[in-house]
User: Fold these one by one.
Assistant:
Number 1:
Amino acid sequence: MSDEIKHECGLAYIRLRKPFSYYLQKHGTVTYGLNKLYLLMEKQHNRGQDGAGIAAVKLNTEPGNPFLHRMRSNAPQPIADIFFKIGQEVQELEKYQPDIKQHPGLMKGHLPFLGELLLGHLRYGTQGKNNVEFCHPFIKRDLMPGKNLALAGNFNLVNTDELFDLINMNPGDFQKQSDLAAMMEVIHHFLAKEDELHPNAADLKKVLQKATPLFDGGYTIGGLLGNGSSFVMRDAHGIRPAYFYINDEVIVAASERAAIRTTFNVGENEVMELMPGKAIIVDDAGNYSIEQIVEPKERRACSFERIYFSRGSDEKIYRERIALGHHLSQTVLERINNDLKNTIFSYIPNTAEVAFYGLVKGMEEYLNKIKVERILSWGNDFTPDKLEEMITRKIRQEKIAIKDVKLRTFITEDANRNEMVQHVYDVTYGTVRPGEDTLVVIDDSIVRGTTLKESIVRMLARLKPKKIIVVSSAPQIRYPDCYGIDMSKLGDFIAFRAAIALLKERNMEHVLTEVHEKIKELARAGQLHTENVVRQVYKPFSTEEISEKIAQLITPAEIHIPVEVIYQTIEDLHDSCPTNTGDWYFTGNYPTPGGNKVVNKAFLNFIEGKNVRGY
């Protein structure tokens, strides 16, 4: 609950299809494209706060003039930092030419990022370091415009070493740390070959058809070529999201449907989903086609994306999160013995608010049913006061916790550090009747459990409730991810630690030995990718047994108030999010062979005490 997860980069792509003079005349500004790129990125800022970058390509430049520009930032507010600098450049031009914004040709010649092709990226550092060099887009430069490439994406690859081998490249230290560097080199390798056959007019469809089948991972990528061609492509399983909008003025693509709708003020049905394995390919004249680059495979769009990462302003995502909370209501009612009178409902953090509404709706449905039954049972034996008391009865909802400013745990001693962590949230006093009320608090997911134990359970216990029930709108997170979310160490997961604890308690540690031996055997045979052996760790136990152990693990020793944990079921997850069936975090059912390899390596790292990534 409230564990920080590094995750999900965001992509923004715009291709202007009209001259700059058109946008000046119709929209009143020559920087229409840049303004929209800024909005498109800001509306996805939830996807990346470690850094941002943009690239721009200008069409029809004279030989000798630069046509590909890039700016990146890892400042605390990277999007604002980039566009503030562009704004300063405009102000500098206006010092000497006050009306230059009324002259599109001059603006294009003097403002580096006033290009017809625009690519923006928001970065969460899932791989590599957080210095600015790792921010997308990456670029490859060449004297031939058609061999210049700017590339950015929302993805992780698990076979970067193999990719470098395929193109006979010995990567440097930088390339080894970045999967985008591997992807860039492979795409550029095939781009250069295609350019030899068709100078400055490479067939992008052929390039992508040769390069992308080599990538093991989930991805949405966008690329700009120096000759004015461009593309946006999605992986064959549809693991990472991609949406697009096209009219006669612009071609737009982004990671979030709601961001496009808001930025361009268009309806839901006007923004289309880019389907798995397909690419939007745009030529230098602004003509586009949607091509099937690789054959689509079983759709495994990431469900964690819908639960946790995507902006809830999208109407489909909003309804799905409501459903996630609603599905949990029956289990919660059973745990509180249907005692709504003495139960308070709340949520932590704010991202769980929509699931909370769904949970409360389920409670209200039950309460309304009880009201009707009670009133009918009275017959004529009631007074106005008695009737009013029954009709006005409501679900008790409170804002139990408020997140304070981010406290810096600058004190190094563990005891003092834990004391500081407790105060990340402020508790709302006077909301709970001590010893009488059960407190039910919902979150979108429980990953590590660290914040729960060190901060939230302690904080909630100060209110002295009769019982604390922690509810997760996601199922138990049991397995690492390798497709864009930084959850690659098994030992980090509270569900895995609970399973290990149960094995030790029941003298079943031989299971760990057997799993370890089996994985080592697969490693020797080069077969780590063939099977997820770690499933055997969880097999002896029911979901409820693991949940009970998790509740014990997140309860500090000095807290004597009962703590229970309720998780979403896999079945209800799929019922709530029917188009996002990717559930490998919860089930271990990976969509690509690289996932099995990662989970098995993660187990080896855990057993050998290596605190490193599984890929």
Note: Confidence is low (pLDDT under 50) at residues 1-6, 408-414.
Number 2:
Amino acid sequence: MLLTLAWITVRDYHQAISEAQRSDQSLARALDENATRAFVSVEQAMQNVAEDLDRQGGVEKADEYLMHLLLKDKVRLTPQIRGIITIGPTGNIHSHGLEYPARKINLADRTYFQYHGLYNTTSPFISEPILSRTDGKWLIPLTRRINTPSGEFGGVLLSGMEPTYFLKFYESLSLPKGVSIQLLRSDGIVLVNYPFDESKLATNERTNNSLVFEQLRLKRHSTITQPTAQGGEQLLTFMVNQSQLPLIITIKHDLDVVLAPFHEQTLTRILVALGLMAVVSVLLYILLRQIRRVEDIEGRLFLTQHTVDESPDLTLWCDHSGLIRYSNKSLASLSGLSQQELLSQHFVDLFTEMNDHDWLEYWQKLQDQKQISIESPLQISSGEKLPMELTLSLIKYQREAYVCCTARDISLRRVAEQELRQHRDQLHEMVQERTAEIRTVLDASPLAIMLSMNGVVRLVNPAFELLFGFAGSDIIGTETHHIFHSPEKFDDIRQKIWSRIATGGVYRGETELYRRDHTPFWAMIYAKALVAGDMSKGMIAVIEDITSQRIAAQSLRQSERLNRTIIDQTADGFLLIDADHRIRDVNHSFTRLLGFSRETLIGLNPRSIWGDTCTPFFPQDLMDLALQEHTTMDIELADQHGLIRPFLINSGVVLDEQENIEYAYAFFTDIAQLKEIEKRLVDAKDAAENANMAKSSFLANMSHELRTPMHAILSFSEMGLAKTSKLELAEAQHLNRYYERINASGKRLLVLLNDLLDMSRLEANKMTYDKGKHSLQLIIRMAIAEMGSLLAGKQLQLEFNEGQEDISTIFDKARITQVIVNLLSNAIKFSPNGASIDIQINQVDLLDNGAPAISIEVRDHGPGIPESELETIFDKFIQSSRVRMGGGTGLGLAISRQIMLDHGGQISARNHPEGGAVFTILLPTAPV
């Protein structure tokens, strides 16, 4: 026995090791297949995207939103991918499959980005696990280089694989205790480990023992035993990927865990061997005792042959006094008394609800009936009473009579009977509840419900009473045809209903019914037989008032006819296509405008007629039309005869309930006449501009010609004023007044000529500027000094807030002075006597284009400018409607605006909230 035990132990040890090796190698192959499928499916998901990016010329050439949609679809179809992103050649994220727009995070420092930047290969690259900069979670980057058409680096396509994808798969395998898994890159970098240890991700297993690592990698798949860091041993299964992916699967299995069942089995065998030796010794001892007692038990052999000692039923034998002469093991086990103790008990000691009188009574019955059955509880040693079914049989042997009692535990039957009664009560309650619920449903139903049997109404709900105007007591028991127009109409409908529901179907149909007051209405009837095939059981009908629906449907049909009529009668062409770009409908105007027949067009693709010309109003992807703003476009199309015709096209889409493209349409407006009118307007505009240039040239020449005699007139008038002012004769005073009028009129005429000359120069772009850096405060003071006589004439106060610092910028001194003089002249003209004029300089301001500028504001306290004229007063020969005095040419503000525009500045007018007008000029701080 000991030699056999030793041999079995050695054999089982080697079998345990071999079985663990085979199991780990099978597991490694399964994990290798899983990793291969995962990475290959990711490569396939990336392939189409990479080819698309290569065709488009690199990552930055792709549309971010369309690429987001494509990447989002790939992520949805590939569960092992958490996200796919495209990275531009500078390292910035261009598009993301999980968000739009993508956050512009720079990834130029990542290993995979530097790898693809150095090596011109489009093979996928598996990088070490990294923490994502977008969501802070671990991922395994699988990347591919994107090239431009010239072969240069065009960016990187990255798929972030979920380590949890592999961990969930490993957890689902119900791995044995003590097994750890690592998915390595071929150079030893840890991609995934299980059980998961974040600190070991991206570490290199090769550095632990590079020689052993290379030996195992060259063997491709093997299992070895190696020591652990804790001083134990473990099985290491090493498998290189079979599909040439740069992957390695390692499985480590603690040897103590592998041999644990072997140790338990060995201990068990030792204990069993010792137990067997003890049992054999005890059996030898018992055998000797049994030989001595065989004569004593020989007399009871007949009794024991009639019972089955191992029977699950309780069996005992009693004599006529009720003393127990035999009991089986089941009775001893259930009662808690040994068989020896039971032999000293009486029947009534076990079944305590009986007494000696009852025993004698049963004994007497057995004399006649031979066998009786009763129920009585068994008293066990714990004091508990178990219900029993007793079968008493009378047996006679060697002139002695015995009662054989077979007892069966009926506790479970009692429980089952109790549960059955409870189920029956619960079923009864459920029936009542369901009946109440059905009644509630019928009462709460908004639809009329009727139960009829043999053409007689048996049940209706409140909705039926409300719909038909009958009280339940009035309609129940009457014939069903009362709600129909006539018995004949009812017979016709009944035949249709019964022919449909006789085989278990449901009838559905519309018919006209009548209320109690004989008012008709249209109803939808749903009918079903209560028992299919048995018409005598009746039917149930649900009735819905559809009068409003029929009216609505009729209105819808009328609306459709109206829309169809409008589309057919409109002068614009109408074209309708479906989601597959097939023409579904055109109106009469379309066929009239382009000459095609409707039968020829239906079913064709517009591209087969006009090619890419129809792309602007019917793009290849109709969703682009849904996303863009509603616009019209001017396009030329060829008619049936090849003639080019101009159209103004307005297109759009029709979406279904799921926001998908159902149809696209376009309206074609013939603009041939408008094009002809436009051509005439362009010709007229050119002629007007030529006339304007001729006018400007004429004004410039005339201004030069008039200035020469005007200077002579002014010179002689000034000489006359000088001479007559020295004479004291009365005639000299008259001459002096004449000379003053001639001089004043000449000066006004000279100002007019100067304005006309300036305007003609500005219009002809012949105005020259002598720009330099000048002080604005000085220019404004010079303008104030020039207008001093006019200010004094109207007793006006001028307040100039020039600040503490000198403000200078680049401008033409004479022309800007002219602008300020024009503004002061207007302010003086519109200011009442004794009022004030304010001049303010703001060193920090902005032009409309956002460039820095210096502003000068001139405010008067006059009547202001009408809001509708704040822009028109800057037009040529235009003055405010509030000008009632002083005259003027209306050229001053127009010249000022052109001068400011030539300086890159602005001039504008507004009304002050407290009264008066405010003119503002803006000069840029930088030269223009």
Note: The radius of gyration is 56 Å.
Number 3:
Amino acid sequence: MPGFSQRYNFRQYDIEDGLTQSQVTSITQDSKRRLWIATLGGLSCFNGKLFCSYTKTNGLNNNFALALSLDKNDGIWVGTARGVSKFNGQKFNNYKQTKDWVGKLVTSHTGTVYGLSSAKLFKTNEAVTEFLNITKDEDENVSALKVDDEGKIAVAIIRKGIFYLENEKWRPHPLNDQLKNFFITDFFSDRFHKNKLWFLSVEGLHSAENGKISQYVSGKFRVIEQDAKSNIWIGATNGAYYLTDTELIHFNGKNGFSNNMVNAIFRDAENNIWLATDGAGLFRFIDRNYVIFDESQGLRSKIVMSLAKGHAQDEIWMGTYGGLFQYKSGQIKEIKIPSDQEDSKNVIFLYNDREKNIWIGTMYGGLWRHNGKRMELMTKDQHAIAYNTILEDSQGRIWLSTDAGCFLLDKKNKRLKSISKQFGSALLETNQGEILLGTEDGVYMINSRYEVVRLKLPQLTGSSILCMAKSGGAILFGTSDNGILVWDRKTGNTQVINTRAGLASDHVYSMLVDDQGILWTGTGKGVNKIKTGDFSVIKNSNEQSLLVECNQNAILQDKNKVWIGTTKGAIVYNSASYIPKSGKPYIYINSVTAFAQNKGQQQKQQTTFQANDLGSIISIPYQQNNIIVNFTGIFLTNPEGLLYQYRLIGLDTKFSETISNTSMNFTSVPPGRYTFQVKAITKNGTSSVNAASFTFEISPPYYQTGIFRLFIFVLIVLLILLAVYIIINLKERKRKLRLKIKLEEQFKVRKQTAEDFHDDLGNKLTRISVLSEVLSSMIDEKDTEKRSIILKINDNVNELYRGTKDILWSLNPKNDKLSELLEHIREFGKEMFNSTPIRFEDRIQLNNQDGKLSLDMSRNLLMIFKEAIHNALKHSKAGVVIFSATVQDGILEIAVKDDGQGLSTAASMDGHGINNMNVRAQRINAKLNINSNHSGMEIMLRVNLSTLMRAKNV
């Protein structure tokens, strides 16, 4: 079934593009979507834009690379003329177990690599290479090796058939009795029809299904593959074949491909078909929904100005600047216009009327009509006119828009009737029967009385109208600089469709509403499709947009095809064709460089991290806080149309606006943890299948670390404490100094007071005592009353003297020691009990713990135990009174104990002496215990010795 005479879309990559060598033998694709291409000059890696090459110089065992396969870790296995090599991304490992040509390699779902060498099957796992025998025939020759999408291995053996590896066992194909009669060179299981097998033999292409083998195409074929639309691709010795349910197309040098032999066919992750040729490099088939007719198909000029349907089915007429042409049955031929004028070949407009006539408007070459049999001139005007547009209205009248104005044609007399002098470029009949005339200065409306009135739409004033169309109740105006204006005549509402809404250009040359309600728009920079429901622009596919300048009013629908005339030929879109969705792009990070701004030491302060370093969190010193991230997005369908969005989590939460560059530079990034994410975006907004990312941490400078901050905090606290300590110490020193001075003054005062008191009061008391004795001698001994008074005076003087002795003792600074106090109390006790039948004993044991007491402490202790001794003498009726003082564990215990009759606690508490003792004990923070029973009474005072010593006279 022959194909149409048209050019097909292939993108060729050869040595000029960076391919290592033009004889391509095998293709595979890694997980990053990079293509790996084996050639007879080495290995190439292609990311959609750039090639990088690996040869024997890089460690490959031989430059004759014949086969490729990819393992689970993206290791590239290469079959060469000297055996097998493996490339891990950094270096090659060469295996000597196979020294002959390795022409085929595949990897199973378990990760085992299988290959063919000298028609023998082998498998390898790097450590061990083992040759296999499937049929137990020592002369077994394997002619083909295949792996399906699930990783299942299959082989074709000459005169044996096809075998599948399942659960480590080889299972024969059910039709091997028939298959063994074919020399099978390539095969695969149909992805869309279960249990259907396609295979190549020396006779051609065959299929095996339902127990039957059928031949499809005969020829010398080498490889086969199936695309995403279930069509079959065949690599031949003279190009490639494309088999669908309805046609067989031979791609060769005449229609956009090559006549060279095809060694391999590969379908990538985006459903692109790649063809490896022997000598012409690598080709990618661009499965577009349009074809182009230009000079290569027979047109004399690629500038197609107008289009019309022919008189027969599937016949299209094309008006060009090189004449009038007819496309029919896949062939293009010229239609002669019977005129000697050269201008008659400049066809500007074609039009089909109701009677199936074809009208031909030329630039200064006349107006012609073809009725299916002959061509006739339709005007007798002598002056030259450029016919821009023709319209047959609902009444059958022919309207002509020309450079000389708007005319009505008198078909009978072949005369033109002038209606308007405005230069016209477009005509349209409204639903109400008016004629709209598009001019260089807006739109004019011609009514039934041929009155010409400007259409009052402010958006059209001053605009050049290039085309017009109707969609439901709306009228659409295509302008030269403002896009499309949609006018709803009923409501008066307008809507503008321009580049902001997604239009390729605001220069709109042609419009057509097809049978599906899609508005086809030819602009100055390509073709757009618009939904007439909401007039939203349909986004283009992910493939590269066709950048062409469309011509004015050169648009036509013929069944499911839309023809558009452009400056590069006639573009024919198949609106009903199915274009499989291309896959999503893939993106990965190549490297990360951290550097310091100090240019003089940049080499010393720069760190580069490669892709394999980015799996974990990378740590960067704070000096190198300028980050450059290099990444690569792979979208083989349209590499040039790829954009990127990124964000730096830690500084940003939202992705950035789209950018086109493949590196990002972040300067002066503050310390902290960040995650960089980048994704690729296609031209129609499809995001990449992944978002490449890595996490890094910029360590803070030492003065921003927690330890340093803690150190500073502790240091500040210590300084504050030191300052407080110094202040307190200074205050304490001042206080001690003041106290010392005060004590010294007190010492002097006390000493002086004691001396003065002793000298003055003592003398006075002595004198009173002497005078009383003199007075007593002068009184009669019988006068007992007077002598009694004198005796009382002597007793009071003596008591006052004894009290004065205590005061004097206390005032004397040398008696401030605890030992002196206890000794004074002991002497007081001896003196009190000296003339009594009560025995007084003392038991003092300080364990060398002595110290000075304040005057207040000394006075209160003295008064407590003088009162205790006095009470014992007065009330106890005891035989023995014991005064004791001990120091144990820093506690001073002073006690007065007797063996008398005791004293009830209630009675004791009523006495002023006991109350005074308790009050004095509280003053010195001491604890006073009074125990009394029938066997005696004990008064014990406990006080912390350090507390006692700390109290000072202030």
Note: The chain has a mean pLDDT of 88.
Number 4:
Amino acid sequence: MNAPYDGDRGQGAAGGSTPPGGTPSVPTPEWTAPAGPPAPHAPHPHDPYVQDAYDHDPYRFHDLSSQDPVDEVLYDRAAHPPPPPGTEPRPLYQQPAAPQYAPDPRVWAQTPPPEPSGPSRRLPYGDDARTVQFTGVDDLVTHASEGKPTADVFAHLYRDQQLQGQSTAAPPAPEPVEPDVSEEPVAAPPKKPGGKASGLLKSSAVMAAGTLVSRLTGFLRSLVITGALGAATLGDAFTVASTLPTMIYILTVGGGLNSVFVPQLVRSMKNDEDGGEAYANRLLTLVMVALAVIVGIAVFLAPLLVHAMSPTLANDPDANSVAVTFARFCLPTIFFMGVHVVAGQILNARGRFGAMMWTPVLNNVVVIFTFGLFIWVYGAYSETKMGVDVIPDEGVRLLGAGMLLGLVVQALSMVPYLREAGFRFRPRFDWKGQGLGKTVGLAKWTVLFVLANQAGVVVVTQLATAAGKASGADGAGILAYSNAQLIWGMPQAIITVSVMAALLPRISRAAHDGDPGAVRDDISHGLRSSAVAIVPVAFGFLALGMPLCTLLYASSGPEAATGMGFMLMAFGLGLVPYSVQYVVLRGFYAYEDTRTPFYNTVIVAAVNAAASALCYFALPARWAVVGMAAGYGVAYMVGVGVAWRRLRNRLGGDLDGAHVVRTYARLSMASVPAALAAGAVAWGLLALLGKDALGSLAALAAGGAVLIGVFYMAARKMRIEELNAMVGMVRGRLGR
């Protein structure tokens, strides 16, 4: 047992003790407790209430540092005799030297480290006093009138664009210019704010505006075409012929050109001594030669191509004649498509982004003027009911020439921009040994991706034209399907694409840095942000698809407009998985994975083709294409399930699914009563006022107002955070 406490306990512990009947222990260096307040359990000699208050505590004097093995009961002195004094070169129980400013548990008041230079004071939570500003009452009063700008919620977009616009090489320093003392000094003009980032933001705004205007004029173009040709066999024949050039271009040159040759073009412009001009001339020459050969073969095989796209039209002599004539006028546009794409990418590599987005507007304007001229000469379809058996040959040639002229104008309008950028086209045929052949193999997955997608388009085109002809009704064929799909896809192109255009640079950098958590968060943010608009719009198509189509396509006749309205309603809810699929696939592209999107596209195309075939054989001809429109959304639901699972595994098993599903479910719950109320109002007004332009406009306006109002109130009651954030952002932008 340890000796009872006395005033010399500290001295005895420090200087050693002598056990009964044994040798003295080795003395340890003498240590004297520093001056300070007494220990918390030490009895106060002048306070009778605390005297002997802690005598019952067995651990009161249990000091491990002062124990001696000789005092222990189990210590065997015979087996382990203590060494005689003075035999050890150093003491056994020497306490380590305490650092100058380290915490000492034996001392209450620690020695503080020296204060840093400058006005500051120490913080108790590890903050560096040299980097922390302390603000007193006087400072608060002094700085109260200083206005501080509110943080912009889109500041990360600026940083993303700024990082993209930064050059790897530092710009050369300007040579100093000696001032002319004979002239009076002239004030330097103020610098324009923004720099490269501002210029890139401006270019992005120009591109976005050009894309929006191009889509709007393209929508007007579809309205004029439908008004001129109707949505029956004549319109289907024109749709098949005008679809062929785009399909052949993408299958042959377009996919590889965009995915492989263009990145190498940009790389050559950065690395080659001539700024990549020689490579650009070789590429443009190669594309022009290849496309010229493809156009010659396609024009010669136009009847076979029409038959492959639609055997139903090919078996009708009048429809086949019109479709083949249209095709032979439209197929040369393949050449000008390729020229326009290569020229646009050359300009993009030189920092000229506007021409690529704005020149398609000229094509749409030319086509609108051509079909408007056709309506002015021959009349609208609603008046003439013109079919493939009565359309004049001059009318067919007029429309075909207008389609070709539109692409010619679009391609030639790039020439002034190229000259302004300093590019001069000189044909070069020295293709061998320049690396052009190796790049073809890199486009394998992209070409297969396009092939799978276009295979599904061919199946749907064949079945839709057959169903439209078998039904004998207007608005039941491929033209009605294409028009409804065009309206249905516009929210996706404007909302989801815009959201992901802002997030994709961040996702790509996070994937490159190996940060799956950041990729997951950005994908989740993109899904939830776009859902705020996509989900109610999808239910809006279901409720208001009929008055929307009867208003826009009134010139094609009430029967055709009604058929397109039913197709738009069938497409409606498929907009949600279609948008989700687009966002999820951006995650694979951020990891530079093109194989998984290819497999996903094969699955979607196969399900779409199977669903279309099932609708064609199971439904009446009048409703077969409407079922195909619904099957399109079902195919993307399957595709989303596959892509979601693969991306979740890619990110370590977590894609924030619970948060995303909860947001979509709550938005859907808010959209259901809104769609029911809006549909009841719209269909009631259509029944009361009729399906003409006036009645459709009233039904669309009233139904849209009810849809927005009910959805907003229901969503606010549910406190959907994404909607609240969007409303707050809009109010902030409006200054309210």
Note: Confidence is low (pLDDT under 50) at residues 1-36, 119-132, 134-201.
